[in-house]
# Entry
Amino acid sequence: MTSQVSSPADQADEANDADQASEAVLGEQRAPQSDKPGADGKEIRRLDRVIIRFAGDSGDGMQLTGDRFTSETASFGNDLSTLPNFPAEIRAPAGTLPGVSSFQLHFADHDILTPGDAPNVLVAMNPAALKANIGDVPRGAEIIVNTDEFTKRPMAKVGYETSPLEDGSLQAYNVHPVPLTTLTIEALKEFGLSRKEAERSKNMFALGLLSWMYHRPTDGTEAFLRSKFAKKPQIAEANVAAFRAGWNFGETTEDFAVSYEVAPAAHTFPTGTYRNISGNLALSYGLIAASRQADLPLYLGSYPITPASDILHELSKHKNFGVRTFQAEDEIAGIGAALGAAFGGSLAVTTTSGPGVALKSETIGLAVSLELPLLIVDIQRGGPSTGLPTKTEQADLLQAMYGRNGEAPVPVVAPKTPADCFEAALDAARIALTYRTPVFLLSDGYLANGSEPWRIPQIDELPDLQVQFATGPNHELADGTEVFWPYKRDPQTLARPWAVPGTPGLEHRIGGIEKQDGTGNISYDPANHDFMVRTRQAKIDGIEVPDLEVDDPSGARTLVLGWGSTYGPITAAVRRLRAAGQPIAQAHLRHLNPFPRNLGEVLKRYDKVVVPEMNLGQLATLVRAKYLVDAHSYNQVNGMPFKAEQLATALQEAIDA
# Structure
């Protein structure tokens, strides 16, 4: 979905100021701004932001429900941030705690940064969903429960001896008991579906109810359902009917006396055309844009792995842009094919997650030796080994830096938000093509599956990535003979020439054994090896990356340094502290190898440096080793992103220490 948003640039600062005040409330909504009667006579309250969590069995369609609510929210013009959370199993055991799937959406009329710490509204489709999520729900929040599922057997599965809807344990919340299953079946009687088939539409009934509660558009969802089930028109119309029945139920029932409005974020974004986008989709589009800007075919050699598979799925749809995708039989074959495509003159990419990087490590080392452009996209997940396939982590940084035999330096780039994955892909491609090197792009599951508004850039805003292939001899021997030296370097970038196979006169040897400087011939000479190792390192050290920008409006003595997906929670926490009068500075790294040239000088300006990471301190280790700075780690490895309140508390303790 796309929408047009116009705002003067100076109003963006006002929106940020408003968000600082909002973030200072530690996750709670601000008071309703105005009340008014709706067309149905019910009260309408105006809110600045809302956090909704849909939760149910992994087969209840919670991800689809959340995605549709998100799409309509994006088309309405709100700022938003999402957090899908689902089991690793394709179909986890029904009605059990491990089988609970949830989707959290935070949307607002101003700039926001995270999916929110705690939901204002929980939609629980069964007892397992309620029990798994109730600990995150603040007192006074709205809970909508499907009472049809609160029978003896489903409750016993999760340890409820008595019904929480009747024993008073939910008195602190505004509970709305709704027989979602019964109402859905009743609404679909005319379609002649079996009970089981009709029950599957209860998520659309819930979506319709929530769409009424928050005045979301409906046309897009109805069109989506008719398109999704185009080959089964009866199922399509049944889902539309369930969706409309949910809306009508909200409008007519006395249990929902209030609905809510969250105005579009009209003053948050620069003028442009926006759409909601996930990290993996943005990364896919970034790769396509990079190939077009480089005027090179895009080749993806990949093996499916959670949470990176969506990139393979998406790129396979775009053959019209010169994209060729190869689903290999394993990780090693995938990167081997990609490296072959790089040798052949393509913008080559391989996608994977942490376990796949381990398998690809030998070929990454070969790419370092061959000095060919190759993008290694690592969508990080919880480890070690198979670990937590559907949960997020930042624990592959040291693997990306050092996970190869020998001295094999590789640049590392990390996006900070789902939309920033587009820019990070372009940046990684720039480095790979300019310096003839493999490049790691470190995203993670939180960014990959999360989404936010993205301004679609104009073509003239994209960088020029065109490269010049070698076309003839580049070296003159002592006797005057002109020859081609495959390892004769550009004096500025130290990049070697890129010679496409089949170009007459440019035949040259490739392989993993050490090369002689210039000629590329096999060499076991100790002095040559020393020179080549140092030259490859110097090439990476010399990569041009922007200086690190520091957000320090108050002359703070404490700096919080982050990288990757911690940007949102860190920035939200910093806003909260500043709103409370605490001075604190913030800086966020995109380039992790090489570091920005001013990083050491920045670190030395502060008495304390705090590094929050979803690992056990990998960036902090690198910073301590390189700059001899006593960086303090704040770590979390539970498979979930940081919460802003949690970080705000930790940073306050660091300031006070």
